[in-house]
Amino acid sequence: MFFAIDVESYEMDHSYVTEVGWSMFNSAENVFQDKHYIIQENVTLRNGRYVADNKDRFIFGKSICTTLRNTVRSLMADWESGYPTILIGHDVENDVNYLKTIGAHIKPVDVFDTTDLYMAITSSQNKRKLSKILTEFGIDFHFLHNAGNDAHYTMEAFLAMAR
């Protein structure tokens, strides 16, 4: 089981988590399952000055607006249902740090960061934004900076690079 994660925060104060999204890919069955949670306590905090505000534009299912506590419970239930699980992320260290601050303590079997993987397979010295990686691999994408979409597209980027 591959598990991609993305956390969005309020651009004016990154201590406020506004969204959590994850994408689970079962390689044995070639099936994606995507989730997008909007944090109820911070629902009125909107981005748009420095990063796009796409909180309301999840395209891989239905967003769930609930408390941070319920979000963490759902995340942990999905994480534990797929164990052993490999964690995928784009600049994944940031997301892991956010998860720790909100009380989600995951223990992956292995971790793959799409920024590092991209640099390794292209011999690039520079990190690339997710949008650039998706474009280079011919993956059509919409509404980045939505945690659910970003998690799904991070998974797609990982799978394309792994192939």
Automatic annotation (TrEMBL):
Residues 1-161 form the Gfd2/YDR514C-like C-terminal domain. GO terms for molecular function: nucleic acid binding. InterPro entries: Gfd2/YDR514C-like, Gfd2/YDR514C-like_C, RNaseH-like_sf, RNaseH_sf. One of its GO terms (cellular component) is nucleus. PANTHER family: GOOD FOR FULL DBP5 ACTIVITY PROTEIN 2. This is Gfd2/YDR514C-like C-terminal domain-containing protein. It comes from Basidiobolus meristosporus CBS 931.73.
